[in-house]
Amino acid sequence: MLLIAEIDLATIKDRMAVNKAVQSGNVEDAIEMVNDLNPEILDTNPQLFFHLQQQRLIELIRNGKVEEALEFAQEELAPMGEENQSFLEDLEKTVALLAFEDVSKCPAGALLDVSQRLKTASEVNAAILTSQNHEKDPKLPSLLKMLIWVQDQLDEKVYYPRITNLSTAALENPAV
User: pTM of the entire structure?
Assistant: First the structure.
């Protein structure tokens, strides 16, 4: 019960709403929600802000809004690219989507995959967690990896009841 007390359920709902907005392509709504949570998140993380804006451009391209996409890239993203070379390279890859009638033939076509939305949503979620002084990565996967590593190390030295199924915590007695 102590764990539940430490986690504010409202912040989980807020992060889920931001995540859903990014994954459904509503990047403007996501940016607004992030700013409502904590305006410093995007102010202090220009890379995250650029990635959100890049995702917004991708969504314009996905929806066939070519003129709006070009205008947005020129007015919003190009100035960011002038300040940071990696932003410029990402912007060029994104704008390249406009040059191909069949984006599947574009080298940057993967930007239109759902995985790009997931990547952006994950980056935003990590930034929100960091701003709330929480771990940006879940602890359970790390603990399970550590358990497997420790067992591998112990196998070389001692006999012990080994966990053979992590989901059920089934133990196997050592063969002597």
Answer: 0.74
